[in-house]
Amino acid sequence: MPGFLPAEEGLALHRAAGTAAAAVPGAPLVEIGSWCGKSTVYLGAAAAEHRTVLFAVDHHRGSEEQQPGWDWHDPSLVDPVTGTLDTLPAFRRTIWSAGLEATVVAVVGDSATVASHWSTPCAFVFIDGGHGHDPAHADYEGWSRLVAPGGLLAVHDVFPDPADGGRPPYEVYLRALDDGFEEVAACGSLRVLRRVLSR
Ligand code: MG
Q1: Residues facing residue 190 across a β-bridge
Q2: According to a count of CB atoms within 10 Å of the terminal CB, is the N or C end of the chain lower?
């Protein structure tokens, strides 16, 4: 399956989502940035196990780094009619194949726009959308406030050493610590932080 998530990190994501779902029963899980659904399956499985749902937010047009001419571009994902990237068909096939259509709800649109109209507290928020400065920080600002007390915030592609990868996810991770989230797990470039109960 196309994607950018090592199996070890996927399993860590699954564990964290299960922990969060147990800590905040009944609250939904949210994923920002689904691409073709690889991480969505790990999170969706945790949601199903805890009888909740996963909202998978993505405009399905790809991030800046996935556009033509960039390293992460995949021409097989271009819609021949529109000429734009369209990962929604691949995403739907992934979710159908995993038997998760009753658990995973695709929200197709700009994450910041969705967040601005969202008020339901979330047990778990996974930020893995656009990795440029503006989208990464907008995702943090839009969604971190929606993590329920006792719930978890996960950030992917956190690289403390600039030689390993781009800065924005690492900056988002530092902001979360500064805002009072506590780090509870790390695996590869995945960081998991808890919103403390007293906030
Ligand atoms: Mg990622």
Answers
A1: 187
A2: C
123 Cα–ligand 1 center, Å: 20
Portion of the chain with pLDDT greater than 70, in percent: 98
Q: For the purposes of burial, counting CB atoms within 10 Å of the CB of 119, is it exposed (0-12), middle (13-18) or buried (19 or more)?
A: exposed
Task: List pLDDT tens digits, range 49-79.
Answer: 999 999 999 999 998 888 888 888 888 999 9
Rounded distance, CA 145 to CA 115, Å? 10
φ/ψ bin of 23: left (φ > 0), alpha (ψ from -120 to 50), beta (otherwise): alpha
Residue 137 designated active-site: no
Residue 155 φ then ψ, to 5°: -130, 130
Instruction: Compute the distance from residue 1 Cα to the ligand 1 centre, in Å.
Output: 14
Report CA(4)–ligand 1 centroid distance (Å): 6
Q: Residue 68: what pLDDT? A: 81
Instruction: Give the amino acid at 72.
Output: W
pLDDT on residue 113: 97
How many whole angstroms separate alpha carbon 88 and alpha carbon 198?
39
What's the CA gap between 52 and 134, in Å, rounded? 31
Taken in order 18, 23, 24, 25, is the CA torsion positive or negative? positive
Give residue 142 CA to ligand 1 midpoint distance, Å: 18
Is residue 199 over pLDDT 70? no
Cα of 52 from ligand 1 centre, angstroms: 23
